[in-house]
Design a protein that fits this description.
The protein is α+β, with helices and mostly antiparallel strands. It folds into 2 domains: 111 residues, no CATH class; 90 residues, no CATH class. Helix content is 39%, strand content 19%. The chain has 6 helices and 11 strands. A hairpin with a 5-residue loop joins strand 9 and strand 10. Helix 1 crosses helix 5 and helix 2 packs across helix 5.
Length: 254
Amino acid sequence: MAQAFGASIKTVFDAVKDIINKDQQGFISVDTFNTFAKIAQLNVYNRLFSEIKEAKKMSRGSVMGSRDKSRIKQIEEDLAFFAKSETIVRENNVFAKPADYNRLISITTDGSILLDQSTKRIIDVCYDEDKFDRLMLSPLSKPKESSPLAMISDKIEVYPTNINRIKVRYYKTPKSRDSDTGARLDSVPSYQVSGTDDNPYEASTNQKDFELPERYETDLIIEICKMAGVNLRDDQVTSFASTEGTNKNIEENG
């Protein structure tokens, strides 16, 4: 899925620094900002899942407006960018979660196509230890090769145990993007500086932008400011959003 560059680490840093100075909070160091940036991206990312979950509840009650539906569609498209698949082999009787695993979408057996029919089986998922034990003990619900079951914890246990390969579809943890090329990087977003003691915030050319899309810059700014202990006023965020919108129009329209 094609996607524009991620939210600019420099834009977010400059805005946070400006807001903190106006709020008379002094300054924020680059190291502190980078620590907050990683956490902020995860907070915003996880909140998107919560927003979709809440929207689905509302849709069942038919109280969602067209604007809300458009917002949810946009979030779903953004999250689809983080969806991945990985085939995992059983080791020591368990399946290890992928290193960048954030949350599960689905699990299937690693089947093949035979006479135009897939031999894959959907694996039911359980997160509750007590419920899992009851399912395993019941002769009616005990997992079979035709209806396997997975227990999800810090690892993945799949029964029956003769299933040795599974395919996991999941959402990855967001990382970063190269600010010049937009290439996805296996590292956290970070603001890089090459300045001196007189100008410690001079940005270098080697920036690691957020992996979340540009449209989430304001959300990231708000999140980082909260962590910095800034009591945000609506006019600060509104002013930033208005300025950014004007700058983007100038850039796009020449």
